[in-house]
Amino acid sequence: QEASLLASRTVRATMDDRAAAFTALLERGLDAHYRLASAILGDSIEAEDAVHDAALVAWRGFAGLRDRDRFDAWFGRILVNGCRDRLRARRRRPVVEPLGDADLRAGASTGEDRAATFARRDELERAVAALDPDHAVVVALRYYADLTVPQIAARLGIAEGTVKSRLHHAMRRLRTAVGEPEEGQG
Fold it and tell me: For 54-108, how does the pLDDT look when each residue is reduced to its tens digit (9 = 90+)?
């Protein structure tokens, strides 16, 4: 009986250690994960749900993670895949969060400038929302998370050429949607 009690304590201690390690690894990048999910989904509430769901998936697979130094990339891939699934599941316009005071101060000084800033931002958000999920994800990872093409390819598990192609086509669609000429034109 003493042996089973010792085994029980060892299992509990191992689980507690694993939970503490998981929590520490998750919390160190939690804000960045929320911001990325918000950028991809366009909705802070849905982003919270996506991060929560990704954390559950990650916890279930955490015992199989061989290199804890790669936790952020591993978790980011789980999160991006979850966000992509959410985008595919919905085809509605994302909730647009209002600009904060700092955004207004940085963006425009007069009422007309602010109106133009709002209009331009709204136009761009509608254009991004109209992209298919695969294109929206690579745009968010490149221009919001500031990842390089090789980093995006690794995060999504796709070829670098595929990332470049998706970025090219997404940017062409965005430029067309907001009325900007193609690079090298006009």
Answer: 999 999 999 888 888 889 989 999 999 999 989 888 765 444 444 444 554 555 4
Q: 147: number of CA atoms within 13 Å, CB side?
A: 25
- Distance (Å) of CA 3 to CA 7, 10, 13, 169: 6, 10, 15, 63
Q: What is the pLDDT of residues 34-59, one digit of tens each?
A: 999 998 888 889 999 999 999 999 99
Q: Measure the CA–CA gap between 123 and 90, rounded to whole angstroms.
A: 20
* Residues 123, 162: Cα–Cα separation, whole Å: 27
Rounded alpha-carbon distances, angstroms, from residue 2 to 5, 11, 15, 24: 5, 14, 20, 33
Nearest to 41 by CA among 88, 100, 99: 88
Q: Which pLDDT tens digit goes with each residue over 136-159?
A: 999 989 988 888 999 999 888 899
The single-letter DSSP state of residue 69 is G
Q: What is the pTM of this model?
A: 0.61
| CA separation for the pair 39, 55 (Å, rounded) | 18
At 94 the pLDDT is: 44
Within the chain, residue ranges assigned H as helices are 2-28, 30-41, 44-61, 71-89, 101-107, 111-130, 133-139, 149-156, 160-178
